[in-house]
Each structure stands twice: as C-alpha cells, then as structure tokens.
Amino acid sequence: MRLSGITPSGHTHLGNYLGAVQRWASGRGPDDLYFVSDLHAMTTTHNPARLRARTSEVLAILVASGIPSERLFVQSDLSRELGALTWILECTCSYGEAARMIQFKEKGSGQPGVRLSLLTYPVLMAADILLQGAAEVPVGEDQNQHVELARALARRFNGTYGEVFTVPRAVLPPAGARIRDLGDPASKMSKSTPDAAGVVFVLDEPDLIRRKVRRAVTDGFTGVEYEPADRPGVANLLEILAGCRGGHPADLAAEFSSYGALKEAVAEAVIEVLRPIRERTVELLDDPGELARIRKAGAARAAERGEHRLTSAMRLIGAGA
Ligand code: AQP
Q1: CA of 131 to the centre of ligand 1 (A)
Q2: Are residues 162 and 14 in the same domain?
Q3: Looking at the structure, do residues 162 and 310 belong to the same domain, yes or no?
Q4: How many angstroms does the Cα of residue 24 sit away from the middle of ligand 1?
Q5: Ligand 1 pocket mutation pick from 190, 193, 202 by most atoms within 8 angstroms of CB
Q6: Are residues 76 and 151 in the same domain?
Q7: What separation in Å is there between the alpha carbon of 16 and the centre of ligand 1?
C-alpha cells in the first residue's frame, strides 16, 4: 500500500495537479491512501483561518479530481492518534538524527524563532506512514531522507520492543515533468511563491489562466522546439501541454510555428483539464455538509486502520492500560 500527502501550504496549482493529483486519480493501486497534511503546514508562520480554508479546498480538489473519498483523509482529524504515535517515535529517535535532516538545516537551523516542529516534523511524517502501515511512500529526492528516518524508527522500534510496524521504503514517483513557474522557468511552480503571476491555480477562472499563459516567459529563438536546457520556458509550455493532452513534448512542438499559437493551445488545454475539477470543487465547497461527511468517514477509516498498531506500540513501550 502506498501513502501520499499534499500540504495545504497555499492554493493547489497546476504542478500539483499534473505532477501528482492527476496520477493519483488515474494510476492508483486499490489500497493506496492520500491525505491532506495540514499539520505539516504549521512548521513556519501560518494563518489559522487560511490554513483551515485551504485544507477544505485541497480535500475538495482531490475528490473533484476523481480520487475515491474512501481513500482520503485529513491529517489533523487523526491528531490524537498521530500525537500519541509521534511521541512514541520521538522516544525512539535521537536528537542527532532529527537535527541531521537536510530540510531542517536548510529551512530553519540557527534562525531566530524557528519552531521546534520544524525539527520534529519528520517524526510526525514517520507517524503518518507507520500508523497506516504504508509499505511504500512515493517521494521526490528532497523527502527521501525523511522516509529513511521512518524506516530507521520502524526497525528500531520493532527490534527493541516487538514487531509492530511495517518497514516502509521510499519509491520514486513515476517519471513526470516538474512544472515550472511561467514567469521564472528556473524555478518550479510552487504554492508558496510570493508572486502568483506565473502560477496557474487549479481554481483559476479561464480568463485568468489565459492571461497567465500568454504572459509566460519564453526566449528570443524562433520556431518551436523542445530543448529543456536552452529553452526552459518553451519546454515548460510543451510539458504542460503534454501533461494535459498526452503525448511527448518534442512531438507536440512540431504542431506549432509560433509561440503565440503554442500559448493559445496550452491555455485552452489547461482550461479544459481544470474546468470540470474547478466546477466540482466549487460545488463541494458550497456544500460544507458533504465535505464534512467525507472528512468524518475518512478519519474514522484511517483511525481504525491504525488503531491496532498504536495500541500495540503503547503497550510494548510500557504505557497505556
Ligand atoms: N511544480 C511541480 N511540478 C510537478 N509536481 C509538483 N508537486 C509540487 N510541485 C510540483 C507535487 O505535488 C505533490 C504535493 O506537493 P506538496 O504538497 O508536498 O508540496 P511541495 O512538493 O513542497 O511543493 P509545492 O506544492 O509547490 O508547495 P510549497 O510551495 O509549500 O513547497 C507532490 O507529489 C509534489 O511532488
């Protein structure tokens, strides 16, 4: 079983959709699980109302994209179970192991006011994985070290106290393009980019998508060719088109003789892919009762799935009744 998460650190964008959500909806295994990792969005300064709204938004987008609701849950709905397991795993983890995490060193180490949670969130991530008994965790290079930590903690707990946890392994997500910022093709499209002009959000209206794509940075070359190293802006547009329509970016390039025509085609393809998702998401967000029902059922299933592991771990470590 595979477990994948998405953090509501901002609005969900086209990169999240083409790079992850679309694949989750179409290529999933029957037991795979997906969750909105809202607790992970609190490790740096955050706005509570915005976090709550974005958590609902991401959940609605996942449902609207076609992921069956019984495969979904919101992380904070399991905060009791995860809090308890995180503590057990913190008591299994050394300070040095946590402090060695590259993401902590890059994002927080030595900075004033850095939240303790920035140091400990990889242990919460281990709890996410181990509670559900996930065998595989599809992650990019930047999260690999965190899955290694989850592996080490599962092994150590099992070896010290008794066999409870499935030892997970990181798997590379299927190869797919890293969608880049339309205004800055050197950077990936990102939820937390301060300037959203180059980021297409899943809930953007068609006219806004057109404007953003028309303003996409290209280059001074003529003719449309797929050359990611020398022409990253155009390559990004072709990869977006391939993500929306299928096919290979290099083959799609042959269809266009100008950047203008390419941009028009990209804008229309993106609009068509996102339209049904935006419409269904808006319906769901207008029906808080339905979203609450999905959340409640997802939380109950996820808690039930993990209960025996948490109870056994508590008992074996010498705590609980
Ligand atoms: N630009 C992207 N192209 C392709 N895939 C992407 N993903 C993120 N950005 C791109 C994939 O989306 C999934 C969920 O992402 P996440 O919530 O873990 O966020 P992230 O990878 O840290 O990047 P974001 O969405 O831009 O957020 P911030 O700005 O907060 O870092 C993952 O499978 C990810 O690979």
Answers
A1: 23
A2: yes
A3: yes
A4: 14
A5: 190
A6: yes
A7: 5
CA atoms of 266 and 260, how far apart (whole Å):
10
pLDDT number for residue 108: 78
For residue 188, indicate whether it is catalytic.
yes
Residues 140, 123 share a domain: yes
Considering only CA atoms, which residue is closest to atom 12 of ligand 1?
A: 16
Atom of ligand 1 nearest to the CA of 176: 4
Q: What's the pLDDT score for residue 277?
A: 98
Instruction: Pick out the chain residues at pLDDT < 50.
Output: none
Q: Is 191 a catalytic residue?
A: yes
Tens of pLDDT, residue by residue over 285-320, are 999 999 999 999 999 999 999 999 999 999 999 998
19 CA from centroid of ligand 1 (Å): 8
pLDDT in the model for residue 197: 94
pLDDT at 109: 65
**Are 7 and 155 part of one and the same domain?**
yes
ipTM of the complex: 0.97
The answer to whether residues 162 and 279 belong to one domain is no
**Tens digits of residue pLDDT in 8-48:** 999 999 999 999 999 999 877 888 999 999 999 999 999 99
Residue 65 sits in a domain of what CATH number?
3.40.50.620
Q: Is the CB of 120 under 6 A from ligand 1?
A: no
Structural domain for 187, as ranges: 180-283
